[in-house]
Each structure stands twice: as structure tokens, then as C-alpha cells.
């Protein structure tokens, strides 16, 4: 909020700056119009519509909200078409003539909305209007506004597997920034994810750490507000994309969050974050848009029954994994047929698929779907630190860590290690035998490692 806006809020209606009372009505009884200074520097669209223009460059708030091309170079002689990308015949808002410049030149034209220069200009305009980053008095500029353009380029240009499955990565790198310009929570999530990756690659550069924290916080706040108050009116693709990025960011921050929340909520923050996907997919309007949109393939992983999953069998893990699953199924009383609803049945079916197939990059969405689709009854078991639920989560972490992406390994091992350490005092030999596999993945060394018992034949 600038100084003039702050003064307007603080001033009492009907009171002059000198402190003298001033009537809000004229001598005829009609309400007085508030005096204002008329500006003739507004954009062509606002002039034509006769609405107040905030004169924001490269795009004013009115045009930015309607996704119109904003033109300050000509008089308002064109009529905007409602719902169109831009008013017919309008000039394209100029991008920066110099890369990473925070002051786009208004004279340049001819850039398409899919061009990098156009995205740079739009993002800089958004960050300027929202005063991001905001520097405290006397604090040096460690992370500057133009640094965000480096984060955008890194997000679109990184070719290694680092964002999930190849399909998901291609979709969000292609469409993410365009979607984010209409959904601030997604744009901040993109900047936070890119900054976190650069921090991982260059931990000595302070600006990446500052940018990662700042954009993650802003994204989480805006995303939470959208889910609580305006989920029905949200952009389905933007919401699902943001949910996936925030889930990964929460998982990356697992060691920090676990230390800060020690003794409070036994359910890790990253699980609750991943559960946000369920809210989006279960919202009828959003689900319909998702099933018909660019992320339809991703959504299938959240709707597909566990027994329909197919994949290449993991030969190296088949024997040990199969024995572990059989013992764990018996421990969870799965398949007993006693007529009681068992919260472990569907979870074990999905875990078995993950245990017996190769953990490749194209399986990342399937791994995230495993957590996102956990039923409230199973979440409650985790909250009560139920042994069998914790073992299942440890197995999930152990398998996820085998997918060699920058965000999977360290956090998965840290979470698996936490669970194994907690269960190391359990005196049940079957529990200790089941923990042998996750212990080996996370490096936890118990006092004694028991062998997995051979379950009785199902025949």
C-alpha cells in the first residue's frame, strides 16, 4: 500500500486535511463527488472504457485481470472484446529490451504472448505491483526483482528429470508460467521450486535460499485461501499444478518442518500438502475440467484402481519385496474376509504395486497418488502413530528414494530414518524383521536385524 492509499484509509470521511468538518453533501442534498486529479496517461483500453487506469507498466491492472494487451502508445479508439485474449487490433505490450531489466521499454512491439520476453515483462509487472520482493528499511538487496527472471528461465530450460514424471514435467514447463500469470499461487510456486533447485545446486548463493522461502510462503498462503474460499471458481489446471509443486516443496523441507513441529502433529506436513490434490479432484467443476484438460493423464493416476496398474517387474526386489508384502499383509489382517472394513486393504494394494515394479521416473505421479489418495481412516492411524501404518509409510519412502530426482532422495531417507528410529524400540520380532528393508535404504542401524519369517502357505 502506497502513501496516498494509506492516507485515504486513515482519513475519516467528511474531514478535511486541516481537521475541519466538511459536509459530504452539497446544498441540493446530493452527495458530493470526491475530488480527484484526472490523469490522461492511462492505457488505450481504460480510456475507451472510461475507467480508472492505474498506469502500471508494462500492463495495467485492468488489462492484466482480463488478459488483454495493454497499450499506452495510442489513444483509446478500440473496443475490447469480452473474453478475448486481447482487444482486436491492439498492440502487444513491449517486453524488456535487455534481458533481466525491470523496466520494460514501451516502444517495442511484435512479441507473442508465448515468447519468453513477453513472460518476463508480465512477471516483472506482477512482482512490481505486489511489491515482491519487499526490502526492510536498511536491509541490503540480496534477492532482487529481476532475479526472478533467472528463476523463470531455469524452470523452463532444465532438461534433466527434476519435476516428476516426463509427462508432468513437459506439461508444467510448457504451460506453467502462462497459467501462473492468471494464478499467483502457481507463479509463486514455480519461482519457489526453481529457487529451491538452484539452492540445491549452489548452496553458497544466498539469494536462492531467500527466494525459495519467500515465494514458497506466498504461494502457500494464496493456495490455501483459494482452496478454502474459492476452490469452485479456481483454475483447475493451475490448482493441480500448484498442488504438485507445493507437495514436493513441503517434502523437500521435511527435515526442517519435522524439527520445528516435533511433538505436535505426528502426521508430516508433506502428507497433508499432498492430500490437497484430493480436494481439487473431488470438486466436481474442477474434476470435469481436469479430465478434459492438459493434465488428464496425471489425473488418471488418482482415479485408477490399484489392481489396474502395470509396470516392469523389479527383478532385484521381487523376492524380498514379495515376502515382505505377504508378511505385512498378514500383520494388517488384509484378506481375512471377516466382513470388517479394513483401512489397510486399499493402501496395501497400492503399496504392492510400488514394491514389485521398478521405481522409474515415469512412476513419480503414481507415488504421489499413493499419498494423495490415502483415506482419512489411514491418516488417523498415522496420527496415532500406529505401528503398521508407520511401516507402510517407511516402505513408501524407501522405494521413492530409489527414483533419482533431486527432491526425492534426501527427504525420503530422512523420513524413513525417523520412522525406523521410532520403531526400533518395538519388541515384536515380526515388526523388526519388516523394518530390515527400510533400514537398509535409509542407513538406520538397529541393534539386531531379524530375518523375515516365512508366512504360512495361503493354500
UniProtKB/TrEMBL annotation:
Pfam families: Fungal_trans_2, Zn_clus. The keyword Nucleus applies. It comes from the Eukaryota. Residues 42-72 form the Zn(2)-C6 fungal-type domain. InterPro entries: Fun_TF (IPR021858), Zn2-C6_fun-type_DNA-bd_sf (IPR036864), Zn2-C6_fungal_TF (IPR052400), Zn2Cys6_DnaBD (IPR001138). Residues 77-112 are annotated as: Disordered. Gene3D superfamilies: Zn(2)-C6 fungal-type DNA-binding domain. Keywords: Nucleus. GO terms for molecular function: DNA-binding transcription factor activity, RNA polymerase II-specific; zinc ion binding. This is Zn(2)-C6 fungal-type domain-containing protein. It comes from Oleoguttula mirabilis. The lineage of its organism: Eukaryota, Fungi, Dikarya, Ascomycota, Pezizomycotina.
